[in-house]
Amino acid sequence: MKAGVTMRRRSHMEISSMIVFLSIISILVQFTAYYFIASPYLILGISTVIVLICTHVLLEQSLTYESCTVYTILLLFISIIITLLTYLGTETNLLPFTNTLFGIIIINWIVPMLHCFIRNMFDYGSRIEKFNAFYRNVSIIFVLFYIGIILYISFADASIPLLYRVKTNQENFTPFWWVATQIEDYINEMIPLSDIITYLLSRILIYIPYGFYGVLLLRNKSKLVRLLFLLILPLGIELFQYFLIPNRCDIDDVIYALIGGSLGGLWFHIINTLYRAVSGKNFLSKDSDYIYSNSTLHF
What we know:
Structural class: mainly alpha
């Protein structure tokens, strides 16, 4: 009995050591490439490959998705710290600051998530365990950062000038007024088409994750409840902006947020349909029958 316990403990220690080792290797490869290579696409490509390899090795050796949770957290923590130090540092820093660093952070989250999702979808025998716990924990990390980004973009002074130019000196309650103004300026060759595309896509895409997780958590609720949920965050933000930053309060942002949230909900249904077609059960559910079921979501 004691021998079995010792073997399990030794195995856990070996997996923990492997997680730390692979995390260090991943970070070293990523930031070495960042230091020596000029092309951001090549840097991000190398970062993707090394994280993919390390995630695969870790799954094969540990046979549990929980190990990937710790690996992902370590990658995110170290890469975020390096990015912050680089951003807040001086010109004499060893690493120059560029937006590619944000790309590395995104890769360190999304690559383990996608790889584990695909492995779990095709793992008919459940050889690797605890995917739901992995997805929940990594999603919590993402949601915390996501909320921080939403609040920063919405309320920080001159957070992203390209997205929040001062349009008027007061709030706007006329639907599509600003995009109509931009179209008129484009026709008169005062602004490029890219300004209109950036304006629309930035306000739609930012709410896709909100819609995805909202429908994921409320998929067994009525459509009215899901619709109200999609409106809660954008309406709340615009309400606070009305009192704090009136020139940012725009009814269009609520409309675009609803479009983005709806696309996020559609994204979830597409993923769930694909997952059910391959694995025979709903995404993140414990159903074992090869039929569709509206049972409680295990998330």
